[in-house]
Amino acid sequence: LDKKGAILTNFDINRDITETADVCVIGSGAGGATVAAALSEYGLDVVILEEGGYYQSREFTQKPTEMIPKLYRDAGASVIMGEPVIAFAEGRCVGGSTVINGGMCWRIPEKVLKRWKWEFGLDDFTPENMDKYYSPVEKRINVSLQSPESIGKGDLLFKKAAESLGYKVKPNTRNQKNCPGFNVCIFGCPGDCKQSMLVTYVPDAVRNGARLYADAKARVIKQKGNRVTEVHAEILDRVTMKKKHNLTVRAKVIILACGAIQTPVLMLRNRLANSSKQVGRNFFCHPNMKITAFFDEDIYYWKGVHQGFQIHEFFDEGIIMAIGGVHPAMVAMSVPFFGKQHLDFMKNYNRMVTAGSLIDDTTSGVVKPGPFDTALMFYQIDREETRRLIRSVALLCEIFFTAGAKEIYVPFRHLSFIKSIDEIKKLYQYPIKNKDFHELITVHAMGTCRMGSDPNRFVTNSWGRTYDLSNLYIADASLFPTSIGVNPQLTIMALARRCAQHIIENWHTYKNY
Ligand SMILES: Cc1cc2nc3c(=O)[nH]c(=O)nc-3n(C[C@H](O)[C@H](O)[C@H](O)COP(=O)(O)OP(=O)(O)OC[C@H]3O[C@@H](n4cnc5c(N)ncnc54)[C@H](O)[C@@H]3O)c2cc1C
Question: Residue of the nearest CA to atom 48 in ligand 1?
């Protein structure tokens, strides 16, 4: 192989390979692609390893049964254990979760930065300093407002009703170009309108000479003294997932960007950089809940962009709400009905609108390596989160009844439908317990290798460099010392750029490794 930039998959590789590089980045999602693009732009020789396959927009058929097994880890069926269990999904493909995400982009709120400063010694994390990292990312991935034509009727109803109640509604800023509101973001954008890593920082890195190996699962990271020296990966057969070939990458710096679940698992399996005993701990996930409102008229809420607006009125209570276009197959899967009742529910698909709430964490969980190749995730929602979840359902019901909804499905075992604004109080009359939740979901894994100023309590310093190993960095959602209460991808990218800056400033040391 020559050293020109390329994306190579298991179909291109027919032998074992040994590579040398300045930097090896493991993972090609929000963190990995961003750090790889910045380092390769500086002129470093970068190799990226990505466990998932390489798929392009022409292959994005919009069909869940075809796209989910290709683009999602465990075909989208991961579960976080606790009462109730929380359904969890993350990407496993070139571009990582950014290929399948909803495209919402928000900077970290100032109150979270203050907390990071006071509690974790992250003194440099002021809004002004962070602007240096956010701005170039926002420009590259084109964080912008949707055109009015791309907003659907459901979103407009939702906004109007919330505003009539005096609630603060914000238009969503999304990483998109000319998005007409296909509303199939979670199966891969068929028009490359979503400016995911697949169409931005991954091609940038490759243009700068980086080699990206898809279908390449990093398994072993060799350590010598206080340094890491090489990564041993397996090139996987795309169909059987069995090893086809070995790939070894020797690098002066190794960056973990496998996401907040797989990064700690890889570290724990390799016994890396855990003198603080915090690897895998402090796992945050923004538990989400969704409801379905039924109107008399057709809304066709799947026409129009996913989440045109968000309600931020209750942000200080740890609640953000939005409507979201959920594919009929997924609505059908998530409701606890059978036979005729299920059919009657789904027959009304054109008249329904689903909406959800993102709850900021007030507790945390743990991530560990499991049997075979699995990751075990534990998270027990606490009383405050339960209160917030129920309150968010009450607020969503209020908004939808104000918008004219006739009936609302709510996901509790003993209470499935609320039929009027007066009935909202039913949510509080019967004490809803954890086991009564029918469905909790999340797609925001954060924490697990928290950064901070004290080597005894934190895994990395504020730049993402592990305290124990001088050339091992982390550049993904694992770094967050707390949850952030808003969609995380933009902050992950900003932190990855910050990490790249530190490596570049210290390259004079690393180049002799
Ligand atoms: C359905 C969905 C919707 C979402 N919507 C939004 C949204 O609208 N806005 C927002 O801000 N966030 C959203 N998110 C979350 C956001 O996409 C993630 O927080 C973000 O992408 C995480 O970045 P990361 O770099 O930590 O990990 P990822 O982007 O998940 O990338 C990690 C990559 O590492 C690879 N990897 C893991 N282990 C290995 C290994 N051992 N060897 C090689 N490669 C490995 C994985 O295959 C993956 O591709 C959504 C997520 C999902 C799943």
Answer: 96
